[in-house]
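Need tokens for this chain, all 364 residues.
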Amino acid sequence: MNTAINAIENCRFCLMCRHVAPVGHVTHNESLTPHGIALVASMQRRGNHPWNASALDVLYAEPDGGNCRAHCVTDQPLPAAIAAIRAEVAAEGLAPAAITQVHDQILKNHSAFGSYQPATLQGEWGVFVGDTGFNLASSTMEAARSLLAACKVDAVPVGCGLDSGFIPCSLGYPDTARQQAQLCMDELQGAGVKKLLVLSPQDLFAFRQVYEERLGLSWPEEIVLIDLVDFLADQIREGRLRIKPLTKTKEHPTAYVDPTHAVRLPARFNSARILCEATLGHPPLELFWRRERAHPVGSTAIQFTRPEIGVQLTESRLQDAVSRGAQTLLCDDPATLYELGLRNKYPLKVQCLYELLLAQLLES
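Here are the structure tokens for all 364 residues:
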């Protein structure tokens, strides 16, 4: 993991991703852009600046949403570098109290938001529910499982309330992240899962990239990872999932918001819109910050490291939808949906895409 720290030297004077830096956009603070954060971190490592309160505020403002790397032609792993530096800070006992508290919560309960319920069923197919999908947005999980049942897929729920390791890793606790990751993999193997549908982009990113790149862990070769959005889009294309389009939707403009971490999983861009079009009868309204330039909401570790910035990120997504004339905002990710619903103060309906699909499902 520490080899990634070299990215701060390459990023500190580079502006390649500046135009899509979400925190810079909402705070208008150049110190909180990728190059600004890298510059402060590099100054500290050279002994030119101590880890005082203002420097730590900068370090913990990186949202770990993937926008900087997605727009870097040299593929600099800056979020991984920041996570590694946070690990050094935590090891020195300098992590802020709010961060150590959520780490202790995960260490104790394997969950940042509630409780963890170990899997009791076995099956070839599994659906990884995750921490947010179980503890904060369970209706998303239930709708997804009903859609899978309509596709004749009996997927056993796994990882119910279980943090995949992404949050502790991003906070700067790689050892705890490895424990969480091993618990995830042990549960899947114990349940006999061979094909894993993943509800949350954050967890899918953790499984596909964080485990190997930041934690030095290998994903079990016998378990195939599948983005649930991609799977359902394939089912619609192949006629196994039939949806009755809503009527008069053009009179009530509906937008789709790409969820947090979507830029790290670009294959899902078209799949999500296939689901939207099947439900609406036409393509959804597009936000300005969409697809490869989609900004996150405050559902990453930033909700613990700099919660006030997390709120700004979420409100910015809602404002984007309102400015485009949307009356309804669709999303499929439980964490993104929870944040949008929590911060929504606009005449805007935030709705789960899976729940809407289920409501319009035609019997086969």
